[in-house]
Design goal:
The complex is a heterodimer. Chain A is an alpha+beta fold. Chain A has three domains: about 5-65, no CATH class; about 75-215, Jelly Rolls; about 220-385, no CATH class. Chain A has helices spanning about 5-20, 25-40, 45-65, 230-235; strands spanning about 75, 80, 90-95, 100-105, 110, 115-125, 125-140, 145-150, 155-160, 160-170, 175-185, 190, 200, 210-215, 305-310, 320, 325, 330-335, 355-360, 365-370. In chain A, the strands form three sheets. In chain A, strands 1, 2, 3, 4, 5, 6, 7, 8, 9, 10, 11, 12, 13 and 14 form a 14-stranded mixed sheet that branches. Chain A has a four-stranded antiparallel sheet with strand order 15-18-19-20, with no helix packed on it. A two-stranded antiparallel ribbon of chain A has the order 16-17. Chain A is elongated, with a radius of gyration of 37 Å. Chain B has two domains: about 5-110; about 115-190, Arc Repressor Mutant, subunit A, CATH 1.10.10. In chain B, about 65% of the residues lie in helices and about 0% in strands. Chain B has eight helices and no strands. Chain B has helices spanning about 5-25, 30-45, 60-80, 90-105, 115-125, 130-140, 145-150, 155-175. The longest helix of chain B is centred in the last third of the chain and has 22 residues, at about 155-175. Chain B starts with a helix and ends in a 24-residue tail after the last helix. The chains are: A alpha+beta, B mainly alpha. At the A-B interface, α1 and α2 of A face α1, α2, α4, α5 and α6 of B.
Chain lengths: ~375, ~200
């Protein structure tokens, strides 16, 4: 594009002379801008400070929200119930006679008491533990994530505090109950059950302890019941080699009753259990009562039963604890009953007989003869409870 | 630079800067905006030659013209359209050439007032059709189409007539200023107002 500058000059001058093409006075506008510029220049440090602060906020925000590798659960002194499994979410875990620790998500530290059984649940920043039995004490760092302890239908929810949850099973109660005791030493927790009932524990104006009772589910009625006459005619082909001199008082309530080995001895009527509670991982101390008591959340088998093995013939899933008890979570266990005439929990049996006791989630669901009984298999008097 | 100095600078040079920007091809509103930016840039730079800031000619005016030209160049580049050239190189070259003509023809080492004065005298001598078309186009701001209808001419004819009148006026001014005159198509000198179509 060629342009005749001389013509353009004349054109502009004619516009100016004849058309009054002149600018408006721009003095005030430019001076105002200059004043603003001076003010900004004098207070440069305010702008610089604001910029630095904004950068800091941005940096901190990025640091907080930037996705980082989420720590895996770390434990000490904790084992899987199934020795073949790895410790991960959803695995049944337990402690032995020693305490254990568990760190979750980098913000939850859990001290686990001996003989505690639980499962790691939850997910990233929403850690959770399903406590089945025993006691845990948790310290949760604030403003990192949430932590829930679930006991049956009860959920203890925290966002940052120090508290403990203990579970005891009282299978002597009628109906048997699982007691949940929550103690808050710092901060506050919210306890919710599936009915929506909410209790605040700890914090200003709230007690630091809470006790709840959860009725335990009754086991399915799978036990068989032999008539007394059959009991009387049952024979005992062979004594159990490892039978103790006395029947230990630690036979759990989930070893169901059967007939008396002594023909002359009438079947013992069901006795009333004392209303004592005990940790579920501890050996049962209930006397030989409640002949047809529903299998409770008791995992310990009678000590000194012999030839205990899983129904599939393996020893997988059986945990032999220090006190000699057996425990297992799921599966079927076959064992020889101890010495004749023992009546743990009112269970009548014949020496040498084998029974298969099936657990599911710590609850005995079935007791049945492991093989066609030499004598009479009786796993509980009728309508005992 | 103080605000008083800035005010002096603006009051003295704003008309010149505006005229310069309009001459360079800026629309009226663009010329005002770029002129403001020019003075603001001068204030921020702090390196304005203030010794002759109070007069329209001189180093300060030349310095301001340079700033204004750069500001206009930036504006045209941002706007991606301009009345001079789409080619950035050609645009810059054209503005440079325009600046040279501004300095040699209008200013002539002064402030350009004598040129304007001479133009006014030449304008006063316009007569007839030339006077009419100049008045209608520049004073009354009629469009070329409106003028063509009034004067019973084609639009191109009006455009051509206006160009001839400007050329005659330019020669007249140059003659008056003693810088020689441009030859007309008829070979005469329009400094004596013998332009084709008749400057009287």
């Amino acid at each position: 594009m060629s342009r005749d500058h001389g013509d353009a000059l004349l054109d502009q001058l004619l516009h100016e002379l004849l058309g009054n093409d002149r600018p408006r006075d721009m003095t005030a506008r430019v001076l105002t801008r200059a004043a603003l510029f001076d003010r900004a220049r004098r207070h440069w440090w305010i702008g610089a400070g604001a910029a630095v602060a904004a950068l800091l906020v941005l940096g901190v925000t990025l640091f907080v929200v930037w996705p980082r590798e989420y720590p895996e659960p770390e434990e000490t002194g904790i084992a899987t119930v199934d020795p073949g499994e790895q410790i991960e979410r959803g695995t049944e875990l337990q402690t032995g006679a020693q305490k254990g620790t568990l760190d979750l998500g980098g913000y939850v530290h859990v001290d686990v008491d001996p003989h505690t059984q639980f499962m790691i649940k939850g997910k990233r920043l929403q850690e959770a533990v399903a406590l089945d039995a025993g006691r845990i004490e948790a310290a949760v760092t604030k403003k990192k994530g949430t932590f829930d302890v679930m006991v049956g239908r009860v959920d203890v929810h925290v966002t940052g505090t120090h508290f403990s949850v203990q579970v005891e099973v009282d299978d002597a109660a009628n109906p048997p109950v699982k007691r949940v005791m929550v103690n808050v030493s710092e901060g506050a927790v919210q306890v919710t059950d599936t009915t929506g009932a909410v209790s605040a524990v700890g914090g200003e104006g709230n007690p630091s302890d809470l006790k709840l009772e959860i009725p335990l589910p009754r086991p399915p009625a799978t036990t068989t019941h032999a008539p007394e006459t059959q009991v009387a005619t049952a024979s005992a082909p062979a004594p159990v080699a490892t039978a103790p001199a006395t029947v230990p008082a630690t036979v759990p309530a989930n070893v169901l009753p059967r007939s008396s080995p002594t023909p002359a001895t009438p079947p013992e009527p069901p006795a009333t259990r004392p209303a004592t509670s005990r940790p579920t991982t501890a050996p049962a101390t209930a006397p030989a009562t409640a002949a047809s008591a529903p299998a409770a959340n008791v995992r310990a088998l009678p000590p000194l039963v012999s030839n205990a093995k899983m129904a599939d013939g393996s020893s997988q899933g059986i945990v032999i604890e220090r006190n000699g008890n057996y425990s297992l979570i799921n599966g079927s266990l076959v064992f020889d009953l101890p010495k004749p005439d023992a009546r743990p929990n009112g269970i009548h049996y014949l020496p040498g007989d084998s029974v298969t006791v099936t657990w599911s989630k710590g609850v005995v669901t079935k007791v049945e003869p492991a093989k066609p009984p030499a004598g009479i298999m009786n796993v509980g008097p009728p309508n005992a409870r | 630079m103080t605000h008083e100095q800035l005010e002096l600078l603006i009051r003295t040079h704003q008309a010149m800067v505006y005229r310069y920007l309009r001459y360079m091809g800026a629309a009226a509103d663009v010329a005002e905006d770029v002129a403001q930016e020019t003075f603001f840039a001068a204030y921020k730079s702090g390196s304005v030659p203030m010794e002759d800031a109070g007069v329209e000619g001189g180093r300060c005016a030349a310095w301001l013209r340079g700033v204004a030209r750069n500001q206009l160049l930036m504006y045209f580049r941002k706007a991606r359209s301009n009345p001079v050239s789409a080619d950035p190189m050609l645009l810059e070259q054209a503005l440079q050439e325009a600046d040279e003509l501004w300095a040699t023809e209008l200013l002539r080492g002064g402030d350009g007032f004598d040129y304007v004065e001479a133009l006014q005298k030449c304008l006063a001598r316009l007569q007839g059709q030339q006077r009419q078309v100049v008045d209608m186009f520049y004073a009354e701001e009629y469009s070329r189409a409106q003028i063509a209808e009034t004067m019973k001419m084609s639009e191109d004819g009006i455009k051509s007539l206006l160009r001839r009148v400007r050329t005659a006026l330019r020669n007249c001014v140059q003659t008056r200023l003693g810088g020689g005159s441009r030859k007309t198509k008829r070979g005469g000198e329009d400094g004596g107002l013998g332009v084709e179509g008749g400057l009287a």
